[in-house]
Each structure stands twice: as structure tokens, then as C-alpha cells.
Amino acid sequence: MDRQGRHRRQYGPPIYVRREIVHNKHVVRTLQNKGAVFVERTDEVPQGAIVVLSAHGVAPSVHAEAAARSLATIDATCPLVTKVHREAVRYAREDYDILLIGHEGHEEVIGTSGEAPDHITLVDGPHNVANLSVRDESKVVWLSQTTLSVDETMETVDALKTRFPNLTSPPSDDICYATQNRQTAVKKLAEDAELVIVVGSRNSSNSVRMVEVALDAGAPAAHLVDFADEIDEAWLEGVTTVGLTSGASAPDVLVDGVLQWLAERGYDDVETVTTGDETITFALPHELRRNLR
User: Which are the catalytic amino acids?
Assistant: First the structure.
């Protein structure tokens, strides 16, 4: 039996997935059609079953819950999120107060906060900075949710630096490179396009931010769609140039679908705007690599 055959025999269906593996409707539906069962809580997974942990990361308590139920876990946490988790653990070990820039209730924020709950304070934007207090202003560090807008994050960082002059920055940028690249590109698109279409889901932080970035950069109109059939033809009235981009977790097939939809309506002259090369690749979760060997 080949590797794929062994994989199918070992891993499903059903395979349970705790929360959405990424915030994209198409990806979730495709996995559901292949037999994946999405659950909100670990205790919804049958004893001894297989559970995939989402790309947004989870708190250590979730791993403990899975172990208590004898679940076989496949940890699909994005390596960039894992890096933030490790930074949180390290700074907590050094007894820093950690100011985590992010949106309350976002899965990534919940997971990161769980790594060092006694040391982390959530900062949900620059308006939250004035009332912050820390134990020792010489031992304060900021970390951030990886899917935030770069501009949004740095506005909060600037406010934090004013409030805490000795604020320590993480050793490297925590914002997802795919998010940064797309935000830079959409600013360029907004210079020339009368309409910007962002392909992505409404519960995807970085996709929602792309619309905001496009509007802030001067685009007269910008809209978020999951699929081509969500585009309103009225948006095209008087529009000669359309900018098209996607959230970090939107598959290429969805972008291709929008390109085809636009071409059928006369927008068939396509120019690619490139502001950065993406050469980073991520390996499969180590559980899969181990069992496919």
C-alpha cells in the first residue's frame, strides 16, 4: 500500500477538527465533504478519536484536555503563531509583563494568552493603552496577534512606547508575512483601482483588514466576498479598473473563480501587481511526517 493509502487508512474518516482549521468557508466545506467533523470544544470529540488543532493555535489547557480524553492530536498550528507562543513563554519565564496586541475573543489571542495567563494583558488597540498598569516599567514587552493590520499594530505599539518608554520589542516581527505582503500590495492596487475585491471570509481578521486597508489607501470602493457569485454587478457601474486580492487563507481556486467572473464581463486584461516574493514553505505537522515515514 502506498503512503496515501496508509494515510487514508490511519486518519479517517471521521477526523475531528477543533474550531475552523483556518477562517475560510471553502476550506471548511471541502474538509467537511471529505469526512471532517468540526467541533467547538475538545469534550465533543469521542474518547480516543483523532482531533486536528487549528492553525490559530491553542492554549496548553487544550492539549491537557485532549490527553485526558486519550485523543490522537494533529497540531496544525501555524509556525508563525507557534513562534509567538514561544516568545510568550520565554518572556513570562523572565518575569516580564507581556502586552499582547490583538482582538479580544480571537482564537489566536486565546491560545497565546493561555501560554502565560499571569503575565499577559490584552491590548485591543491604542485606545486601551492609557489605563494600562504594569508591575515594573523596565520589564515590559509587546507581542501581537499575527493576522493584524501592520498599520493598526504599529499605531498601538507607538502608543505603548509613549506610555512605557522602556518597552521591549520582540526579536522579530510577529505579523504574518502573507498578511504584510497582501496589505502592501492592496495599497498599491488602491492607487489605480476604482473597485477592490478581497476574496476571503468575514470571520478572517486579515481578510476584513484588507478591505479597510484598501479604503484607507484611497480606493473608492472595496468589498469582501467568499465566492465570485457574491459579487454584485452594480459594483461595476462606471468602473474601468478592478483590483483583486485575497486573504492569507483563501485558496487560489477562489481567486481564479473571480478572475473568470470578471473576464466574462469584459475585465479580461489582467496585470499582476507584485510587491514582495513569498518563498517560505511550511512542513506538515510533525505527527503526519512521523506516521507517513
Answer: 108
50's enclosing H/E stretch is strand 50-53
Least confident window among 7-16, 98-107, 259-268, 282-291: 7-16
* 45 neighbors 69 (Cβ within 8 angstroms): yes
Task: Give the separation between CA 45 and CA 16, rounded to whole angstroms.
Answer: 7
- Grid cell, residue 104, equals 479580544
Strands of the 222-225 sheet, one edge to the other: 222-225, 195-199, 242-246
User: In terms of pTM, does the model score above 0.85?
Assistant: yes
Closest CA to 220 of 201, 233, 239: 239
The candidate with the shortest Cα–Cα distance to 19, out of 47, 44, 46, is 44
Quickly count: other Cβ atoms within 10 Å of residue 39's Cβ.
Answer: 13
Beta strand extents in 102-235 (DSSP E only): 120-123, 140-144, 195-199, 222-225
pLDDT tier, 4 (very low <50, low <70, confident <90, very high otherwise): very low
Question: pLDDT by residue (tens digit) across 96-120?
Answer: 999 999 999 999 999 999 999 999 9
**201-227 CB burial, b ≥16 within 10 A, e <16:** beebbbbbbbbbbbebbebeebebbbe
The strand ranges marked E within 81-134 are: 97-101, 120-123
If we measure between CA atoms, which residue out of 198, 94, 87 comes closest to residue 143? Answer: 87
125: exposed, middle or buried (C-beta count within 10 Å: 0-12, 13-18, 19+)?
middle
Confidence of residue 213 (pLDDT cuts 50, 70, 90): very high
Q: Is the predicted pLDDT of residue 288 greater than 50, yes or no? A: yes
